[in-house]
Amino acid sequence: MSWKKDVLLIHKKEEAVRLLGDLEGSKPIFICVIGNTETAKIPGISAAGRSPELTDYTPAADVEFLFYGECRCIKGVPVTPDGIPTPALITRAAIVLADMPFFVISGGVRVKPYAPFIELGGNPGADIRTGRAVEGVEEVVGRAKAAGRSFSKAADYLVVGESIPGGTTTALGVLLAMGVNAKGMVSSSMPVNPHELKVRTVEEGLRAAGIKPGDLKDDPIAAVSAVGDPMIAAFSGFVAGAASSRPVLMAGGTQMAAALSVVKALEPDVLDNVVIATTRWIASDSSSNIKGLVSQIWNVPVVAANLDFSTSEIDGLRAYERGVVKEGVGAGGSTIAAVLKTEGRVTCEDVRRKVEEEYRRITQKGSKNNRFHLPFWEAKAGGLFAGLSE
Amino acid sequence: MSWKKDVLLIHKKEEAVRLLGDLEGSKPIFICVIGNTETAKIPGISAAGRSPELTDYTPAADVEFLFYGECRCIKGVPVTPDGIPTPALITRAAIVLADMPFFVISGGVRVKPYAPFIELGGNPGADIRTGRAVEGVEEVVGRAKAAGRSFSKAADYLVVGESIPGGTTTALGVLLAMGVNAKGMVSSSMPVNPHELKVRTVEEGLRAAGIKPGDLKDDPIAAVSAVGDPMIAAFSGFVAGAASSRPVLMAGGTQMAAALSVVKALEPDVLDNVVIATTRWIASDSSSNIKGLVSQIWNVPVVAANLDFSTSEIDGLRAYERGVVKEGVGAGGSTIAAVLKTEGRVTCEDVRRKVEEEYRRITQKGSKNNRFHLPFWEAKAGGLFAGLSE
Fold first, then answer.
1. What is the pLDDT of residues A287-309, one digit of tens each?
2. Which terminal CB of chain A, N or C, has fewer other CB atoms within 10 Å?
3. What is the CATH number of the domain that holds B90?
């Protein structure tokens, strides 16, 4: 067990040890599922962008950073309003250190990445307060299942992360619609978790859709359509398609509970093949409760990458220890996969050092050529391939 | 050498034996690169659709058939004007028999598949007679390279096929622009190869672009932009990205020569890792000359799947022996990969039998529910996800 120090066992420890043990030394593929929801633009909901309007660019910028080590649709990298950088830095460090193949799937985005991505035909999501959050969920789920089946034939296991600003609020929507007691339990990219605002937002959406909590327990398509987001649709379909033949690490924070709830309703037989993989910052977060959410749905194991930035010389990284950002872009799961793939030759410490190196590279680049500079963050003018989708 | 009877050695036999020998028993991923060009709508150019207008649907329908065993954007399956079915039947048989993972990449299509596909941000191609055939080639090539690098980390080798009606004419365009003496040498999906029409079409395009044959020998981006197609852009970029670390079977007919010419100009170092894999129908075609084309560019090995439909009870399949269709959707290369992957447990005979079974299934389905019927072929009205892209 070369990964003992690097992986924290949070829930269902024995199953976790057995499942992760099976994966040691075998070959993962990392997938990042992206989406946008207008819900992110409600002031105070999301810190996944310098301003609510700029959250449109965050998913595309995150995956561009994975591909190229720099963003293309924006200058710099996505940051919170306080300038704390995206967890895509962690994910890129993990996939580079472990030489891990990775792919991007879009459930529906406003800004398309300047990078290859798998299109499922979905549209960006509306504000969940309308009660009509996502169009064409069934079709997106079906295509995502097909993609999951293809990838399950190409890898020993899959690690699936996400990037969607506002995603914990839409996750709360799906969880409440499906009857999970989730109030006060979803996490936040902000140090002070705006539970009340999230609940109010979801309740407005449920009212608009004419739904009471729990009404859609057995109808995940309707739940996502009413108060979910396009990432959850694509993510859940992908896991349902992939986990029927290969283990899947669902890599994220409390949003994974919403996806788990949808997967359980779509394809309950695959749940034995599923582990939730997150970060220490989510596992130890006192303002959310991933274990409490998961155990209400299905007792899959929960593990966490033992990432610790407390001794980092870089302010923007030490901020993670104060509860900013916490998780995203599959940061925790990709780190765990890097440890497992290399049988412990890559550690959480190595990932931290690589993140620091990357952080210095992008900030120095800024000071040198006056183009990249953290926490400067700005949408670039659209070129040939750019632009908001309609 | 379990594949002796199933793989014909056409060019550079010793290298072919060595390279294929290395691949035996190892794990491929099949990729189908799709695109559209308005060139296909010039009457007499393409038989990859019941009518020139319907060729818009063929690439999407082909890959839908790979995913689902039936098409979604059309009724039935793509057929020639005489009702001979698409080679996607062969490709699906091969990938199903060998349980091969597969993915779709779009270089730029008019009709988007009702299936997952990798988007590179490209647009469908214009009629090459304009001399301005493809926009944004450099960007598409760059993204395709990135996709190729990702896939090369996920497979032991890649098998890359294509579907683009009109593709041999645009291939001729790229070959002539890059100085390959290709007149009278590209193949055709029709039994009588319209060489004169193709040459006239390309020469009109070269004139419009102000180019003489050979002018763009060292500028593949300009050649594809002027008289090429979006499939060649995506295909060549993908091969350039993937073959730097893994072997690649370029799966197709004489269009592969155009892609090879582009790859050679982009990334000559990767050519040792490349084999062209086609069908017996292309290898033995007296109206084209794949060996003559390839040997002008770079002496990569050429091999052919020993597919033989002469004893088939099904008219539409025996037509392949009369020189209709011949190749497409990576039919030859996927068959060879199925043989190699299973170390000869899947043979060309098995693929033929499976094709007959699939053919009967789709035609019976037609007679039963009056929906599928070969050679009936019709564009369906667009639904939520359908439709021509602008």
1. 999 999 999 999 999 999 999 99
2. C
3. 3.40.50.10210
